[in-house]
Amino acid sequence: MDYIPNILFAIILILGIGYFTKNIKKLVRNIKLGREVNASDQKGERWKNMARIALGQSKMVRRPIAGFLHVVVYIGFIIINIEVLEIIIDGLFGTHRIGLDFLPVSVYGFFIGAFEILAVLVLVAVVVFWLRRNVIKLKRFLSSEMKGWPKNDGNIILYFEVVLMCLFLVMNATDTSFQELGHGNVVSQFISPWFSDNTDTLHFIERTAWWLHIVGILIFLNYLYFSKHLHILLAFPNTYYGSVEPKGKFNNLEAVTTEVKLMMDPNADPFAAAPEGTEDEEPAKFGASDVMDLNQIQLLNAYTCTECGRCTSACPANLTGKKLSPRKIMMDTRDRLEEIGKNIDANKGEFKDDGKQLLGDYITNEELWACTTCNACVEECPVSINPLSIILDMRRYLVMEQSAAPMELNNMMTNIENNGAPWPYNQMDRLNWKDE
Amino acid sequence: MSEQLKVPTMAEYMAEGKQPEILFWVGSAGSYDDRAKKITKAFVKILNKANVDFAVLGTEESNTGDVAKRAGNEFLFQMQAMMNIEVLNAYDIKRIVTCDPHSFNCLKNEYPNLGGQYNVVHHTQYIKELLDSGRLSLEGNTYKGKRITFHDPCYLGRANSEYDAPRDILQKTNAKLVEMKRHKGTALCCGAGGAQMFKEPEKGDMDINILRTKDALETKPDIIATGCPYCNTMMSDGVKFNEKEDSIQVLDVAELISES
Lengths: 436, 260
Prior knowledge:
The structure holds 2 protein chains of 2 kinds.
Chain A: H1 4-31, H2 43-55, H3 64-93, H4 99-102, H5 105-134, H6 149-173, H7 176-181, H8 188-191, H9 199-223, H10 231-241, H11 254-264, H12 296-304, H13 310-314, H14 316-319, H15 326-346, H16 358-361, H17 365-369, H18 376-380, H19 387-401, H20 407-419
Chain B: H1 10-15, E1 22-25, H2 27-32, H3 34-49, E2 54-55, H4 66-71, H5 74-90, E3 95-98, H6 101-110, E4 119-122, H7 123-132, E5 147-150, H8 164-171, E6 176-177, H9 208-217, E7 223-226, H10 229-241, E8 249-252, H11 253-258
Parallel strand pairs in B: 1-2, 1-3, 3-4, 5-6, 5-7, 7-8
Helix pairs in contact in B: 7-8, 9-10
């Protein structure tokens, strides 16, 4: 009978991790719906970016208040999770604070003491975060795309963290043997007197807090997939796959290069049959009207977005009241991808056309045409997301597949085609300035 | 203009069997836009003064295709790029300088994988080179003590991480450089990029150039300096909107240096 808690613990652990794994597999499958993209170059640079931007939080601290608070929560999160390792071992083997068997009391106390201090700091940071979202009402948390679920999601995460930190401190405070140890209870010694002196009651509270803590962590882990909070995992691959080129460099479409070369080759036969083996290939679609037309890095970007809105708060179009919000571009991409994922699940692994697409049903032409391609959103993103590349791919679809550019732009492009300048001037007058 | 500018073309160089040190890519704005032509001439004046052996393509130059690419017309961009690359490669061009950050970005980053590999520099970088090597020197009296604020063009700054060259050379005019609250990486766009120059803005509550000019006016400048013909137009319009055109000039870095 003594083994029942251990078995129960193992079952909960397997269920928690199992369901999470299932969802991660789904996420990978969804990302793979995108076009393949080669990112095997500059590995050194990529690892460096990941270490600097994701691990080192280098871009977070550009906004000092939010950045500092985030670093506190981030360090707290990573370090306090070392404690989870002990909890798992204790849970599986029925031990109690197994760390004490391996480490000298003073070292063990140092670790737990550090965790306790961090837990308090995290609590403070989380409270400030909550105030910023709900009382101070920072502009970037009030945009139209932040109504409903995105707003609740942000708060739920904060409540989760408060509960987990409190459980951790209560668990330590009511652990009589740990308190008697006199090492590492830097914070919990002050909480301890709040509880009764009855050893049985204390033990019961300690066990309850212990169980709720680990169950809470597993629930939180599984909440990630349904939340913007996925960034705590995806920030790492995302910064690795983020662009290592100058921000101004936009990709050249290869399918276009092939056609343009053919058009410019004086020896090409316009009526020639397609080369062997290419007859059945579908003609390439230019640009993107739905998420499958985007590449896998762009889709990873969408899942990584934590909706902080730094991009939108720096976007010149958004700052001057236009509809474009780079954050909304990322949220729309993710929501559409999730919708397609659910469609595939519901139809036994096959996507059934639902008559919807990213362009029009989620992102409007008006938003796309408001972009100045200034890269402010790309520069701002703390986890290397590139909303601009999605905007450009969708403009490409509008122009090359639908000829749906605003009229003034069509005039400009006709001018370039006819006289090599965006204005209706004669190419032969190009050097006239010299003598004027 | 009182003094005659020397503007040799590549065709002339070719005829003499010579190769210039550098090709000056004038760009569409620099060739046709009345305000931008002044920038082009100011830069030529600098090149002449420093005895730079340069040439232009003249009527053989065509639009880089940059603006078409950013509007989404990849076809037109690549057509333009390949035509230009044919000309540039036929002349065996190795190095290019341009006053337009959009041409600079496009030639430097987007031409290489279509077969056009050149060493491309922005005119602020090239002027810095001329000053550093001593080929060009400034008296430094014209703008002494004037308050100048530099507006970072997106395609020079964020797009290609060049923030220092324009500031370094402006320092040499002995002017007092003042920064806007949003500058370098966080600089606000002037509103012209991404083909916006050629269309009406979408509905909003303000034009972007008005907001950016507000940033500039907060520094109480005598001069707003730019390094891009499109930024120049947008900022000039913003200054006019605020009815400050009598007290505040909008000048390109090349114009400031050519008068220093």
